[in-house]
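Review this:
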Amino acid sequence: MRKVDAIAAVLLLVLVAVVVFVIIPRENSGGVWHGLSPYFYPMVMLAGLAFGSAGLLVQALTRPNSYDDQSKTPVTREELGFFLLAGTIVLVATFVIHKFGFWIGGPVLIAGIMVFMGEVRPLRIALVAAPTIVATWVLVTWVLKIPLP
């Protein structure tokens, strides 16, 4: 068993409990809203985090030998560099969305990540980016009724 998995799972479960039972009730100012509660989406995300953390804890406790064949170094410098590069692509695309809007920044985000992952064919990038951006716009604008930048 990797102790780090068990410790991380327990700490994440504690974080979920603190947010659900302390932070969200403190932020509840009452009032009237129409449709879903403003706490619905955070609670859905916290439920996902709780289920994932519980699964990690169960795996760490029930399969102690599942990591024996893996390296003792959790992340190499190369993997850390790739993670930081992907994060930078997302951050830059976020700034592009803020400055130029969703219709420009969205394709920049998708294209940037696809190029980072090794795709170089512009037609394939466009065939993935265009329907994704249109579907996201329809979902956010018409279904959720939220304005996009």
Summary: The chain has a mean pLDDT of 89. The chain is about 75% helix and 0% strand.
